[in-house]
Amino acid sequence: MIDPIPSPSVPGPIADPEMPAVHEQLIVFARELGELYRLERARSAELERVLASLQETYLATMKSLAQVIEAKDRTTRGHLERTQTYGVALARRIAPSLVDASPTLGYGFFLHDIGKVGIPEHILCKEGPLDDGEWEVMRRHPVIGAQIIAPISFLSGAVELIRHHHERFDGSGYPDALRGEEIPLTARVFAVVDAFDAMTSERPYRGPMQLERALDEIRRGAGAQFDPEVVRVFAQMIEEESWDTDEVPEELPPARTAIAPQRAG
Ligand SMILES: [Fe+2]
To answer: Residue 67: inside a domain, yes or no?
Structure first.
């Protein structure tokens, strides 16, 4: 039998006479830190509220400006809202991640013509067709619009769409004559929605085009003015959703069949 090894004697804790005071001090520090943290959070919540309010004010100003341009430009009332609502809905159908990644994308649809603020009134409001020189000036509005919006960081998701909203799929658009998939997807979506709304709206010089005829026109433009895949998804969307040419929608109306689905063949 082996004798157990005797264990060394373990010294007990040495009582430090200053310990209670240090402990007390730590509790005071912890309380003070907690209070500082609470104050910082309140301050940061207040800053967030101020920032949100600034963003709202800025957006309201931009939207008013866009509506003033809309009135001068004699665009049909509600065009901007419809373009935004249906544009975002179409973008979501094509690539949900596009909309999720850029929550302010919808403002790009609404503010697409904001650059017209930089176009002289005698050109913007001219009765009758523009001459070549006037067209050259008018064609600057996408670039001016992108320059206006670019410094506003919370609208960064809208800049690309504003700059490229007059590009055409075959490369004959402006300002950069981009072709096919070089054109940002949001701008390809915009082109279809904008043209469809323009055709189906009442204009001073003509009545609204029937939805089915307008859709045929859009299909005819696939590959030239429009991205064929965007046209395909768009046709599917308006066969499933309503497209109200009179109302100013705040959100996409509930699904109902607005036009008869096209027959195969
Ligand atoms: Fe435009």
So the answer is: yes
User: What domain range includes position 98?
Assistant: 25-240
pTM to 2 decimal places: 0.73
Kindly tell me the number of DSSP H helices and DSSP E strands found in the chain: 11, 0
pLDDT digits (tens, 9 = 90+) for 199-237: 888 766 667 778 889 999 999 999 999 999 999 999 999
Give the Å distance between the CA of 8 and the centre of ligand 1. Answer: 90
Q: What's the CATH code of the domain at 70?
A: 1.10.3210.10
Q: Tell me how far the alpha carbon of residue 264 lies from the centroid of ligand 1, in angstroms.
A: 35
- Say how many Å lie between the CA of residue 61 and the centre of ligand 1: 19
Percent of the chain with pLDDT over 90: 40
Residue 144 lies in a domain: yes
> What number of CA atoms fall less than 13 Å from residue 56's CA on the CB side?
6
**Centroid of ligand 1 to alpha carbon of 253 (angstroms):** 25
Instruction: Report how far residue 44's alpha carbon sits from residue 42's, in angstroms, rounded to the nearest whole number.
Output: 5
**Residue 6, in any domain of the structure:** no
Write out pLDDT tens, residues 23-60: 888 888 889 989 999 999 999 999 998 888 888 888 88
Between the CA of 156 and the centroid of ligand 1 the distance, in Å, is 18
Span from the CA of 185 to the centroid of ligand 1 (angstroms) = 17
Measure 76 CA to ligand 1 centroid, in angstroms: 14
Look at the chain and report how many structural domains it folds into. Answer: 1
Are 190 and 165 in contact by the 8 Å Cβ rule? The answer is: yes
How confident is the model at residue 97, as a pLDDT? 87
> How many whole angstroms from its chain centre is CA 112?
10
Q: Is 17 helix (H, G, I), strand (E, B) or coil?
A: coil
Residue 2 lies inside a defined structural domain of this protein: no
